[in-house]
Write a structure and sequence with these properties.
Helices cover 48% and strands 16% of the residues. The longest helix is centred in the C-terminal third of the chain and has 34 residues. The C terminus is likely disordered. The chain folds into two domains: 232 residues, Alpha-Beta Complex (Spore Coat Polysaccharide Biosynthesis Protein SpsA, Chain A), CATH 3.90.550; 70 residues. It has 316 residues and is α/β, with parallel strands linked by helices. Helix 5 runs parallel beside helix 8 and helix 9 packs antiparallel against helix 10. An eight-stranded mixed beta sheet has the order 7-5-6-4-1-2-3-8, with helices on both faces.
């Protein structure tokens, strides 16, 4: 049954903080006097997150759940939640309370005034380490230049109008989805709402260096073909270097000097080999994305639903 507001919360082993998160959101939403549902998506948690959702739903029917068959990642969990959300507006936020639920009323106010997407934009990241802030700034800068979309300070804390949710879940069949990028790409009337990143209520971030690098490569290749330009650029660079070395060798020969020998040849071969490997690596990333899309597998598989209609979005 449709409601005024759906709130989607992806969760991976968030058993410790989830009760506080749900209580906080429930109190704020009920003060708005709207019909609502809170959908917690258990992304293959290793604790008893799903049992907590079951118990909470038994006492509070507005709190519902989606249990994925294994961990598919946050992007898949978000889209599974969006697929099952019935609200006229849908808000997505993290389970660790780093996205302040206190801004939900302001998001709803922007929506009532005509905004179809309200982006929560990180303003103060004092809760993050210096390295986290640095890598986020580098990533956002590179992504913005490659894709043409300014995602500096972007987050998964957003409000989407029903119209936008339907487009994201029904009109974009791609396998490799990037929620922040797609929500900017679709257009419509968008508003930015700055917020300060709060410290995590419990636990630590599960994003490691390798995971962040994989995420950055995935999102950049999903939204821009410009990295493919690296291949011809590197080839042109190698051509220029080859011409310079060739001219230098000819002049050395005409001047009666010995032509540069083994060291120059070795450096040139190593350099050209490195450029070739970089070019092949870039092409390989795009081929991997094509391979994933061609297989046509669902974004995620759902083990069971808690308080939701089984006939909706059971595969993706």
């Amino acid at each position: 049954m449709a409601c005024d507001l759906s709130i989607v919360i992806p969760a991976f082993s968030e058993r410790e903080v989830l009760p506080l998160t749900l209580d906080t959101i429930k109190a704020i939403v009920e003060a708005e006097n709207v019909s609502y549902e809170i959908i917690v998506v258990d992304d293959g948690s290793r604790d008893n997150t799903s049992e907590l959702i079951d118990a909470t739903h038994a006492t509070t029917p507005e709190i519902k759940g989606i249990v994925l068959s294994r961990q598919f990642g946050k992007e898949a969990a978000l889209f599974a939640g969006l697929k099952h959300a019935s609200g006229k507006a849908v808000i997505t936020l993290d389970a660790d309370l780093q996205h302040p639920p206190g801004l939900i009323p302001e998001m709803l106010e922007h929506w009532r005034k005509g905004a179809e997407i309200v982006h929560g934009v990180k303003q103060d990241r004092h809760a993050d380490t210096l390295m986290q802030r640095f890598t986020a700034a580098v990533y956002s800068g590179i992504f913005s230049r490659l894709s043409g979309f300014d995602l500096r300070g972007s987050s998964d804390f957003k409000l989407l109008d029903r119209r936008v949710v339907d487009v994201l879940t029904n009109s974009l069949p791609e396998y490799g989805r990037f929620y922040r990028g797609l929500s900017a790409w679709v257009g419509y009337r968008q508003v930015s709402l700055p917020f300060d990143v709060a410290p995590r209520e419990s636990g630590e971030s599960r994003w490691g260096g390798l995971g962040l690098l994989r995420y950055a490569i995935h999102t950049m290749t999903a939204f821009s073909s410009l990295p493919l330009m690296i291949v011809p650029v590197l080839g042109l660079l190698m051509l220029i270097i080859s011409i310079i070395l060739g001219i230098e060798a000819i002049f050395s020969k005409l001047a009666g000097h010995s032509v540069s020998g083994f060291a120059t040849l070795e450096i040139t071969l190593l350099f050209s080999g490195s450029l070739i490997m970089i070019g092949l690596g870039v092409i390989g990333q795009y081929m991997a994305r094509m391979f994933d899309e061609i297989k046509g597998r669902p974004v995620c598989l759902i083990s069971r639903l808690i308080g939701l209609d089984n006939s909706v979005g059971s595969k993706d």
